[in-house]
Amino acid sequence: MELIAGGQYDDFRDEVQTWLAEHLVGEFAAHRGVGSPTDDTAWDVRIAWEKELSDGRWLGLTWPTEYGGRGVGLAEEIIFEYEYARAAAPARVNTQALELLGPTLLAHGSDEQKARFLPKILAVEEMWGQGFSEPGAGSDLAAVRTKAALDGGEWHIEGQKVWTTFGDRADWLYVLCRTDPDVSLRHRGLTLLLVPVDQPGVEIRPIANIAGSEEFSECFFNDARTTEDMVVGGVGNGWPVVMSTLSRERGSALMPMQLSVEREVGELVEKARRTGALDDRRLRQRLVDALIGVHIMRSTNLRVVSDMLDPRTSGSATTAAATASKLFASTHHQRLGELAVEIEGAEAVFGDDGESARKLFLLSRAETIYGGTSEIQRNIIAERVLGLPR
């Protein structure tokens, strides 16, 4: 917490708290804590809330001012996320653009791409989805088979993507394609393309999950097209570009979700106190373990974020730290869901009062899969941290 220690950020913290108190009212207040990066509950309310955040210039805090950001530092962003989570504000909806694509464009995009897309992201005028995983290439992105060929100033795209979060809400997709099928190494010959959804060659089919939500989608490309200039980071350079995106997905982009876990633990403790479950020594110990896990998540996430911005930290070290953070957070959240269902008892299965515990349990099952499976995360740690053979 050294990044935000002392009184130098008190004015900014007061500004955040005051704004949230004044604007998180009415329908927004009635939807406190609603949704998640993988839950489309109360979508229209959350869109309206995100536009409210945009009007207050609370989106893309660290982005340059010329694109609509504030150009502030990491400490301010962390403070905002903590206060946002503490206020239980509705989950933001365009996280694919705000947390993943936007930083990728800032690092690898052309000046024209930044000017074209970043202001519209911050204005909540365009939604984005990620086209990485495929039926035969989930965590192993080097195996992608969606192909793109340049012809007449346009990229022609053929293939299929799956598990595209909020894909049915997206105006654009950022799609990893194989543009050179003849290279000997699989991770070469890949290119990241920006593809408009509203065209005959793109078909998106929502996928219902076990919690009854349809946040995931399948995306089919049948001679889908995008212009030649919609390449991020250069033709054939898709692998390092995508790796930088994934390091954020497994690191700093998890911060809002991880901070909300702290609130979930607090609510679960209060529930256990009201129902008498806190008197059970075994459940009480598991609640203590859950709270300890929250503090571990917080400290490791801060370290990952600071490492990502420290030029002295190597890329492989940052990736390994982000991987460890993601692995711990996803497994810990699953255990929390299991504990919530046990504390709620039959209500979690049959009653309306147990809806939050039920949804926590069901949605957390996917967390050890999306963003890279836990098996892949352990392989990365074994190879890059422990030096074990492939």
TrEMBL record:
Domain Acyl-CoA dehydrogenase/oxidase C-terminal positions: 236-386
PANTHER family: ACYL-COA DEHYDROGENASE (PTHR43292), ACYL-COA DEHYDROGENASE FADE29 (PTHR43292:SF3)
Keyword Flavoprotein: yes
Family: Belongs to the acyl-CoA dehydrogenase family.
Cofactor: FAD
The name this protein goes by in its record: Acyl-CoA dehydrogenase
InterPro entries: Acyl-CoA_Oxase/DH_mid-dom, Acyl-CoA_Oxase/DH_mid-dom_sf, AcylCo_DH-like_C, AcylCo_DH/oxidase_C, AcylCoA_DH/ox_N, AcylCoA_DH/ox_N_sf, AcylCoA_DH/oxidase_NM_dom_sf, Mycobact_Acyl-CoA_DH
Recorded GO MF terms: flavin adenine dinucleotide binding; oxidoreductase activity, acting on the CH-CH group of donors
Annotated Acyl-CoA dehydrogenase/oxidase N-terminal domain residues: 11-124
One Pfam family cited in the UniProt record for this chain: Acyl-CoA_dh_1
Highest rank taxon of the organism: Bacteria
GO cellular component labels: plasma membrane
Residue ranges occupied by any Acyl-CoA oxidase/dehydrogenase middle domain in the UniProt entry: 131-222
Keywords on record: FAD, Flavoprotein, Oxidoreductase
